[in-house]
Design a protein that fits this description.
alpha/beta; Rossmann fold; eight-stranded mixed β-sheet; two-stranded antiparallel ribbon; 6 helices; 10 strands
Length: about 230
């Protein structure tokens, strides 16, 4: 690095062979091995975060449970178009505040994208979780911009095919089951590539669909549509 670049304020210039230093610290993930590998030492506060997996129910929700437990009492946790209805008893047992959950189930793809952007722009959500089976690059850029402008993390759950597609997301993780652990491959971060996946033991690893149940159990989660308020 030239002397001129070295004299610039920290965070203004990022070298690709080093982890970036964001202005704000990240949100602790609850997994020390993962925090060490993420710029800011945790989930970025205003960014699109992609969690890519072959299928739901492999432990992907267990990865973000520690962050969901610590949201401020006056803020919402928005769930948008999950593949199954959240199962309230399991979430409560995991320490997630049910009274702060907001469940949105848009029927059309354009309504889904609109709902995500509005949840981010509202300023009322501490975190937004959304499930997208398909999305183009232009829509992803708008979501990334909305997350940045609102300083709100957007966790976007995407299918395995998304790993082969370019994305403006600041952080992309590919998740695969690994026995009693979850293998986390960092596909993209503001820093050098990670040579091998991390293997994280989930302290509350649920059985498949323990945190989300199919539609026949709709009454068990009906209150989540209104967040219990």
């Amino acid at each position: 690095m030239s002397a001129a670049l070295a004299d610039l304020p920290p965070g203004l210039v990022w070298r690709a062979d080093q982890l970036a230093r964001p202005v704000a610290d990240g949100i602790p993930t609850g997994f020390a091995a993962l925090d060490v590998e993420l710029p800011g030492g945790g989930w970025p506060r205003g960014a699109l975060i992609e969690l890519i997996a072959d299928a739901p129910g492999i432990g992907e929700l267990g990865l973000i449970l520690p962050a969901l437990r610590t949201v401020p009492a006056e803020r919402w946790i928005a769930w948008i178009a999950p593949p199954h209805l959240p199962y309230a008893p399991a979430l409560a047992a995991a320490g997630v505040p049910l009274e702060q959950l907001l469940l949105l189930t848009p029927e059309r793809h354009d309504e889904l994208l609109w709902a995500i952007r509005q949840a981010l722009a509202s300023g009322a959500c501490a975190v937004v979780l959304a499930w997208l089976a398909r999305v183009d690059g232009a829509a992803l850029r708008r979501l990334q911009l909305a997350a940045e402008e609102s300083a709100t993390p957007l966790f976007l759950f995407r299918p395995a095919s998304a790993a082969r597609q370019p994305s403006p997301a600041g952080l992309r993780l590919r998740l695969t089951p690994a026995g009693d652990a979850l293998a986390v491959d960092i596909l993209k971060r503001r820093g050098p590539a990670l040579a091998a996946p991390l293997h994280l033991a989930l302290p509350q690893r649920p059985a498949p669909h323990a945190l989300v149940r199919p539609d026949p159990l709709r009454p068990a989660a009906a209150s989540l549509h209104a967040g219990g308020r």
